[in-house]
Amino acid sequence: RKDGYNRLIKIFHQGGKCGFSEPLTFPSPVDLIQYYQKKSLAQYNSKLDIRLLYPVSRYYQHHVIEIDIAAIGEQLRIFQDQYKEKSQEYDHLFKELNQTSQELQSKRTAIEAFSEIIRIFEEECETQERYSKEYIDMFLTLDSSTKNDNRIQNNSEELQSRVEEIHNSKKMLEEELRTKALAHMEVDRKITRLKPDLVQLRKIRDQYLLWLTQQGMRQSQINNWLGVGADEDPYTLEDDTHEEERSWYVGGMRRREAEELLKGRRDGTFLIRDSQTQRGSFACSVVVDGDVKHCVIYRTSTGYGFAEPYNLYSSLRELVLHYRHTSLIQHNQQLNVTLAWPAFSQQSSDSVRR
How many Å apart are CA 132 and CA 151, to the nearest integer? Predict the structure, then answer.
Protein backbone atom coordinates (compact mmCIF):
# COMPACT_ATOMS: atom_id res chain seq x y z
CA ARG A 1 0.00 0.00 0.00
CA LYS A 2 1.61 3.29 -1.15
CA ASP A 3 0.13 6.80 -1.36
CA GLY A 4 -3.37 5.38 -0.94
CA TYR A 5 -3.00 2.85 -3.76
CA ASN A 6 -2.22 -0.87 -3.97
CA ARG A 7 1.08 -1.65 -5.73
CA LEU A 8 1.70 -5.15 -7.11
CA ILE A 9 5.26 -6.55 -7.39
CA LYS A 10 6.11 -9.96 -8.83
CA ILE A 11 8.56 -12.10 -6.82
CA PHE A 12 10.72 -14.31 -9.04
CA HIS A 13 11.92 -17.72 -7.85
CA GLN A 14 14.52 -19.79 -9.68
CA GLY A 15 17.37 -22.14 -8.76
CA GLY A 16 16.65 -21.94 -5.04
CA LYS A 17 16.87 -18.11 -5.04
CA CYS A 18 14.21 -15.41 -5.15
CA GLY A 19 13.96 -11.64 -5.60
CA PHE A 20 12.14 -8.86 -7.41
CA SER A 21 14.61 -8.81 -10.30
CA GLU A 22 17.88 -10.32 -11.49
CA PRO A 23 20.19 -11.19 -9.91
CA LEU A 24 18.05 -13.24 -7.50
CA THR A 25 19.92 -13.14 -4.16
CA PHE A 26 17.50 -14.14 -1.40
CA PRO A 27 17.37 -17.80 -0.18
CA SER A 28 13.62 -17.56 0.50
CA PRO A 29 10.65 -15.14 0.44
CA VAL A 30 11.02 -14.82 4.24
CA ASP A 31 14.56 -13.49 3.81
CA LEU A 32 13.35 -11.07 1.13
CA ILE A 33 10.58 -9.75 3.39
CA GLN A 34 12.88 -9.39 6.40
CA TYR A 35 15.36 -7.42 4.27
CA TYR A 36 12.77 -4.97 2.90
CA GLN A 37 11.28 -4.49 6.36
CA LYS A 38 14.48 -2.57 7.12
CA LYS A 39 15.40 -1.30 3.64
CA SER A 40 13.31 0.78 1.25
CA LEU A 41 11.83 -0.76 -1.90
CA ALA A 42 13.35 2.23 -3.71
CA GLN A 43 16.40 0.00 -4.17
CA TYR A 44 14.24 -2.00 -6.57
CA ASN A 45 12.00 0.80 -7.90
CA SER A 46 12.74 4.51 -7.27
CA LYS A 47 8.98 5.26 -7.15
CA LEU A 48 8.46 2.85 -4.24
CA ASP A 49 10.23 4.65 -1.41
CA ILE A 50 8.59 2.63 1.34
CA ARG A 51 9.34 -0.40 3.56
CA LEU A 52 7.29 -3.58 4.11
CA LEU A 53 6.08 -2.66 7.59
CA TYR A 54 2.71 -4.25 8.30
CA PRO A 55 2.05 -7.87 7.24
CA VAL A 56 -1.59 -8.82 6.62
CA SER A 57 -2.37 -12.19 8.27
CA ARG A 58 -5.59 -14.17 8.18
CA TYR A 59 -4.86 -15.15 11.81
CA TYR A 60 -4.20 -11.65 13.17
CA GLN A 61 -6.47 -9.54 11.01
CA HIS A 62 -7.94 -7.42 13.83
CA HIS A 63 -4.53 -6.62 15.26
CA VAL A 64 -3.16 -5.71 11.84
CA ILE A 65 -6.09 -3.38 11.12
CA GLU A 66 -5.35 -1.41 14.29
CA ILE A 67 -1.70 -1.03 13.29
CA ASP A 68 -2.67 -0.01 9.74
CA ILE A 69 -5.11 2.59 10.99
CA ALA A 70 -2.49 4.11 13.27
CA ALA A 71 0.03 4.18 10.42
CA ILE A 72 -2.49 5.71 8.02
CA GLY A 73 -3.41 8.28 10.66
CA GLU A 74 0.24 9.32 10.89
CA GLN A 75 0.42 9.56 7.10
CA LEU A 76 -2.69 11.76 7.21
CA ARG A 77 -0.91 14.00 9.70
CA ILE A 78 2.12 14.29 7.39
CA PHE A 79 0.07 15.13 4.30
CA GLN A 80 -2.08 17.58 6.26
CA ASP A 81 1.03 19.42 7.48
CA GLN A 82 2.42 19.54 3.95
CA TYR A 83 -0.91 20.75 2.60
CA LYS A 84 -1.17 23.49 5.25
CA GLU A 85 2.38 24.63 4.51
CA LYS A 86 1.74 24.81 0.77
CA SER A 87 -1.62 26.53 1.38
CA GLN A 88 0.03 29.22 3.50
CA GLU A 89 2.65 29.72 0.79
CA TYR A 90 -0.09 29.98 -1.84
CA ASP A 91 -2.11 32.48 0.26
CA HIS A 92 1.01 34.59 0.79
CA LEU A 93 1.79 34.59 -2.94
CA PHE A 94 -1.81 35.35 -3.85
CA LYS A 95 -1.86 38.28 -1.43
CA GLU A 96 1.37 39.53 -2.96
CA LEU A 97 -0.11 39.12 -6.45
CA ASN A 98 -3.17 41.19 -5.50
CA GLN A 99 -0.96 43.85 -3.96
CA THR A 100 1.27 44.14 -7.03
CA SER A 101 -1.86 44.21 -9.23
CA GLN A 102 -3.16 47.21 -7.28
CA GLU A 103 0.23 48.92 -7.50
CA LEU A 104 0.41 48.30 -11.25
CA GLN A 105 -3.06 49.74 -11.74
CA SER A 106 -2.18 52.75 -9.58
CA LYS A 107 0.99 53.44 -11.55
CA ARG A 108 -0.81 53.06 -14.88
CA THR A 109 -3.42 55.57 -13.71
CA ALA A 110 -0.67 57.97 -12.58
CA ILE A 111 1.11 57.68 -15.95
CA GLU A 112 -2.16 58.47 -17.74
CA ALA A 113 -2.57 61.51 -15.49
CA PHE A 114 1.00 62.63 -16.23
CA SER A 115 0.34 62.27 -19.96
CA GLU A 116 -2.75 64.47 -19.68
CA ILE A 117 -0.90 67.08 -17.60
CA ILE A 118 1.96 67.12 -20.11
CA ARG A 119 -0.52 67.62 -22.94
CA ILE A 120 -2.11 70.59 -21.15
CA PHE A 121 1.24 72.17 -20.31
CA GLU A 122 2.56 71.73 -23.85
CA GLU A 123 -0.57 73.37 -25.26
CA GLU A 124 -0.04 76.22 -22.81
CA CYS A 125 3.59 76.54 -23.92
CA GLU A 126 2.56 76.67 -27.58
CA THR A 127 -0.08 79.30 -26.82
CA GLN A 128 2.34 81.42 -24.82
CA GLU A 129 5.02 81.19 -27.50
CA ARG A 130 2.54 82.09 -30.23
CA TYR A 131 1.37 85.26 -28.52
CA SER A 132 4.52 86.30 -26.64
CA LYS A 133 5.90 88.35 -29.58
CA GLU A 134 2.61 90.20 -29.90
CA TYR A 135 2.63 90.94 -26.15
CA ILE A 136 6.24 92.08 -26.26
CA ASP A 137 5.55 94.44 -29.18
CA MET A 138 2.61 95.88 -27.30
CA PHE A 139 4.55 96.36 -24.08
CA LEU A 140 7.46 98.04 -25.93
CA THR A 141 5.23 101.08 -26.37
CA LEU A 142 4.83 101.35 -22.61
CA ASP A 143 7.29 102.80 -20.06
CA SER A 144 7.57 99.49 -18.19
CA SER A 145 8.27 97.52 -21.37
CA THR A 146 11.57 96.01 -20.14
CA LYS A 147 10.00 94.82 -16.91
CA ASN A 148 7.02 93.19 -18.68
CA ASP A 149 9.28 91.68 -21.35
CA ASN A 150 11.37 89.98 -18.63
CA ARG A 151 8.27 88.77 -16.84
CA ILE A 152 6.90 87.12 -20.01
CA GLN A 153 10.26 85.54 -20.73
CA ASN A 154 10.54 84.24 -17.15
CA ASN A 155 7.03 82.80 -17.27
CA SER A 156 7.83 80.99 -20.51
CA GLU A 157 11.05 79.53 -19.13
CA GLU A 158 9.33 78.48 -15.90
CA LEU A 159 6.60 76.73 -17.88
CA GLN A 160 9.14 74.89 -20.03
CA SER A 161 11.07 73.83 -16.91
CA ARG A 162 7.90 72.53 -15.31
CA VAL A 163 7.06 70.48 -18.42
CA GLU A 164 10.54 68.96 -18.35
CA GLU A 165 10.16 68.03 -14.68
CA ILE A 166 6.85 66.29 -15.41
CA HIS A 167 8.43 64.40 -18.32
CA ASN A 168 11.22 63.19 -16.03
CA SER A 169 8.72 62.12 -13.35
CA LYS A 170 6.75 60.21 -15.95
CA LYS A 171 9.88 58.40 -17.18
CA MET A 172 10.76 57.38 -13.61
CA LEU A 173 7.24 56.10 -13.07
CA GLU A 174 7.36 54.11 -16.31
CA GLU A 175 10.60 52.47 -15.19
CA GLU A 176 9.03 51.62 -11.82
CA LEU A 177 6.06 50.15 -13.70
CA ARG A 178 8.33 47.91 -15.78
CA THR A 179 10.13 46.69 -12.66
CA LYS A 180 6.85 46.05 -10.83
CA ALA A 181 5.40 44.24 -13.86
CA LEU A 182 8.37 41.86 -13.92
CA ALA A 183 7.92 41.17 -10.19
CA HIS A 184 4.20 40.57 -10.80
CA MET A 185 4.95 38.06 -13.55
CA GLU A 186 7.41 36.20 -11.30
CA VAL A 187 4.83 35.87 -8.51
CA ASP A 188 2.29 34.65 -11.05
CA ARG A 189 4.76 32.00 -12.27
CA LYS A 190 5.36 30.83 -8.69
CA ILE A 191 1.61 30.47 -8.14
CA THR A 192 1.28 28.50 -11.39
CA ARG A 193 4.06 26.13 -10.31
CA LEU A 194 2.58 25.73 -6.83
CA LYS A 195 -1.01 24.92 -7.88
CA PRO A 196 -0.41 21.32 -9.07
CA ASP A 197 1.42 20.45 -5.82
CA LEU A 198 -1.42 21.91 -3.77
CA VAL A 199 -4.08 20.01 -5.72
CA GLN A 200 -2.18 16.72 -5.47
CA LEU A 201 -1.55 17.08 -1.72
CA ARG A 202 -5.20 17.84 -1.10
CA LYS A 203 -6.24 14.84 -3.19
CA ILE A 204 -3.94 12.45 -1.29
CA ARG A 205 -4.90 13.90 2.09
CA ASP A 206 -8.60 13.50 1.33
CA GLN A 207 -8.05 9.89 0.23
CA TYR A 208 -6.57 9.11 3.65
CA LEU A 209 -9.34 11.03 5.37
CA LEU A 210 -12.02 9.19 3.40
CA TRP A 211 -10.52 5.78 4.24
CA LEU A 212 -10.33 6.57 7.96
CA THR A 213 -13.90 7.87 7.94
CA GLN A 214 -15.09 4.70 6.21
CA GLN A 215 -13.37 2.62 8.90
CA GLY A 216 -15.57 4.34 11.49
CA MET A 217 -12.80 6.36 13.16
CA ARG A 218 -14.02 8.92 15.68
CA GLN A 219 -13.91 12.55 14.61
CA SER A 220 -11.88 13.42 17.72
CA GLN A 221 -9.10 11.02 16.67
CA ILE A 222 -9.14 12.31 13.09
CA ASN A 223 -8.96 15.88 14.41
CA ASN A 224 -5.97 14.88 16.50
CA TRP A 225 -4.12 13.63 13.43
CA LEU A 226 -5.13 16.78 11.57
CA GLY A 227 -3.96 19.05 14.38
CA VAL A 228 -7.43 20.46 15.07
CA GLY A 229 -7.90 21.61 18.68
CA ALA A 230 -10.93 20.94 20.86
CA ASP A 231 -12.04 24.58 20.60
CA GLU A 232 -11.82 24.61 16.80
CA ASP A 233 -14.40 23.55 14.25
CA PRO A 234 -14.07 19.83 13.48
CA TYR A 235 -12.53 19.04 10.14
CA THR A 236 -14.51 16.87 7.75
CA LEU A 237 -14.05 15.94 4.13
CA GLU A 238 -14.02 19.15 2.15
CA ASP A 239 -17.27 19.81 0.34
CA ASP A 240 -16.46 19.68 -3.35
CA THR A 241 -19.74 21.22 -4.52
CA HIS A 242 -17.90 24.50 -5.17
CA GLU A 243 -15.90 22.60 -7.79
CA GLU A 244 -19.07 21.64 -9.66
CA GLU A 245 -20.50 24.45 -11.79
CA ARG A 246 -23.91 22.79 -11.80
CA SER A 247 -24.21 23.54 -8.07
CA TRP A 248 -24.09 27.32 -8.63
CA TYR A 249 -24.25 28.21 -12.37
CA VAL A 250 -27.78 28.75 -13.73
CA GLY A 251 -27.14 30.15 -17.21
CA GLY A 252 -29.78 32.59 -18.46
CA MET A 253 -31.85 32.74 -15.26
CA ARG A 254 -33.33 36.22 -14.79
CA ARG A 255 -32.79 38.49 -11.79
CA ARG A 256 -36.29 38.00 -10.35
CA GLU A 257 -36.08 34.22 -10.72
CA ALA A 258 -32.75 34.26 -8.86
CA GLU A 259 -34.29 36.28 -6.05
CA GLU A 260 -37.17 33.79 -5.75
CA LEU A 261 -34.74 30.86 -5.67
CA LEU A 262 -32.55 32.42 -2.97
CA LYS A 263 -35.38 33.79 -0.85
CA GLY A 264 -35.18 32.51 2.74
CA ARG A 265 -31.72 30.94 2.29
CA ARG A 266 -28.87 31.42 4.74
CA ASP A 267 -26.34 34.26 4.26
CA GLY A 268 -23.65 33.30 1.79
CA THR A 269 -25.93 31.19 -0.42
CA PHE A 270 -25.20 32.20 -4.01
CA LEU A 271 -25.60 31.47 -7.69
CA ILE A 272 -24.01 32.81 -10.86
CA ARG A 273 -26.01 33.58 -13.98
CA ASP A 274 -25.51 35.28 -17.34
CA SER A 275 -25.79 39.05 -17.06
CA GLN A 276 -28.99 40.44 -18.59
CA THR A 277 -27.61 43.98 -18.88
CA GLN A 278 -23.94 43.49 -19.84
CA ARG A 279 -23.44 41.11 -22.74
CA GLY A 280 -20.57 38.65 -22.23
CA SER A 281 -20.46 39.25 -18.47
CA PHE A 282 -22.05 37.39 -15.57
CA ALA A 283 -24.00 38.29 -12.43
CA CYS A 284 -23.51 36.91 -8.94
CA SER A 285 -26.65 36.77 -6.78
CA VAL A 286 -25.91 36.21 -3.09
CA VAL A 287 -27.80 36.38 0.20
CA VAL A 288 -26.50 39.12 2.52
CA ASP A 289 -28.20 39.91 5.84
CA GLY A 290 -31.30 38.06 4.64
CA ASP A 291 -31.58 40.02 1.38
CA VAL A 292 -30.54 38.99 -2.13
CA LYS A 293 -27.87 41.26 -3.63
CA HIS A 294 -26.47 41.25 -7.17
CA CYS A 295 -23.07 42.20 -8.57
CA VAL A 296 -21.47 41.97 -12.00
CA ILE A 297 -18.65 39.53 -12.77
CA TYR A 298 -16.55 40.88 -15.64
CA ARG A 299 -14.82 38.72 -18.22
CA THR A 300 -11.70 40.53 -19.48
CA SER A 301 -8.49 39.70 -21.30
CA THR A 302 -6.77 39.14 -17.92
CA GLY A 303 -9.51 36.92 -16.48
CA TYR A 304 -12.75 36.96 -14.50
CA GLY A 305 -13.38 39.27 -11.53
CA PHE A 306 -15.63 41.80 -9.82
CA ALA A 307 -13.44 44.84 -10.57
CA GLU A 308 -9.98 45.87 -11.69
CA PRO A 309 -7.31 44.99 -10.73
CA TYR A 310 -8.92 41.79 -9.43
CA ASN A 311 -10.01 40.38 -12.80
CA LEU A 312 -7.38 37.65 -12.48
CA TYR A 313 -9.22 34.34 -12.33
CA SER A 314 -8.89 31.93 -15.25
CA SER A 315 -12.46 30.65 -14.86
CA LEU A 316 -15.66 31.23 -12.90
CA ARG A 317 -14.79 28.14 -10.84
CA GLU A 318 -11.44 29.66 -9.80
CA LEU A 319 -13.26 32.85 -8.80
CA VAL A 320 -15.82 30.91 -6.75
CA LEU A 321 -13.13 28.89 -4.97
CA HIS A 322 -11.28 32.08 -4.00
CA TYR A 323 -14.30 34.00 -2.71
CA ARG A 324 -15.44 30.94 -0.81
CA HIS A 325 -13.07 32.14 1.94
CA THR A 326 -12.60 35.82 0.96
CA SER A 327 -15.26 38.47 1.64
CA LEU A 328 -16.72 40.53 -1.21
CA ILE A 329 -16.52 43.62 1.00
CA GLN A 330 -13.28 44.69 -0.69
CA HIS A 331 -15.37 45.38 -3.82
CA ASN A 332 -18.58 46.64 -2.18
CA GLN A 333 -19.05 47.79 1.42
CA GLN A 334 -22.58 46.35 1.42
CA LEU A 335 -21.35 42.84 0.56
CA ASN A 336 -19.67 41.63 3.75
CA VAL A 337 -20.15 37.98 2.81
CA THR A 338 -18.34 35.03 1.23
CA LEU A 339 -19.62 32.68 -1.47
CA ALA A 340 -20.11 29.99 1.15
CA TRP A 341 -23.11 27.94 -0.02
CA PRO A 342 -23.82 27.05 -3.67
CA ALA A 343 -27.55 27.36 -4.27
CA PHE A 344 -27.90 23.71 -5.29
CA SER A 345 -25.63 22.13 -2.68
CA GLN A 346 -27.01 19.74 -0.06
CA GLN A 347 -26.00 22.05 2.81
CA SER A 348 -27.80 24.99 1.24
CA SER A 349 -30.94 22.89 0.73
CA ASP A 350 -30.81 21.72 4.35
CA SER A 351 -30.75 25.34 5.52
CA VAL A 352 -34.08 25.98 3.80
CA ARG A 353 -35.77 23.00 5.46
CA ARG A 354 -34.52 24.06 8.86
Answer: 11
Region(s) of the chain under CATH 3.30.505.10: 12-55, 244-342
Furthest-apart CA pair in the chain: how many Å? Answer: 126
User: Distance between CA atoms of 54 and 38, rounded to whole angstroms?
Assistant: 12
Contact status, residue 36 vs residue 51, Cβ threshold 8 Å:
yes
Q: DSSP string spanning 45-90?
A: -TT----------SSSHHHHHHHHHHHHHHHHHHHHHHHHHHHHHH
Domain 12-55: CATH superfamily is SH2 domain (3.30.505.10)
Name the 3-class secondary structure at 296: strand
d(CA 101, CA 302): 11
Q: Which of 345, 336, 119, 165 is nearest to 244 (CA)?
A: 345
Would strands 17-19 and 12-14 be described as parallel, antiparallel, or unpaired? antiparallel
Which DSSP category does 144 fall into? T
pLDDT digits (tens, 9 = 90+) for 88-138: 888 888 778 777 777 877 788 888 888 888 888 778 777 766 666 555 555
User: Which CATH number does 69-215 carry?
Assistant: 1.10.287.1490
Give 300-351 pLDDT, tens digit per residue: 888 899 987 677 788 898 889 888 877 888 788 888 898 989 998 765 555 5
Give the count of beta carbons closer than 10 Å to the beta carbon of residue 161.
10
Start-to-end CA distance of the chain, whole Å, equals 43
Given the candidates 1.20.1440.230, 3.50.50.60, 3.30.505.10, 4.10.640.10, the CATH classification of the domain at 244-342 is: 3.30.505.10
- Give the Cα separation of 303 and 310 in Å (integer): 9
Alpha helices (runs of H) in 215-323, residue ranges in sequence order? 219-226, 255-262, 316-323
| Contact call for residues 104 and 173 (beta carbons, < 8 A) | no
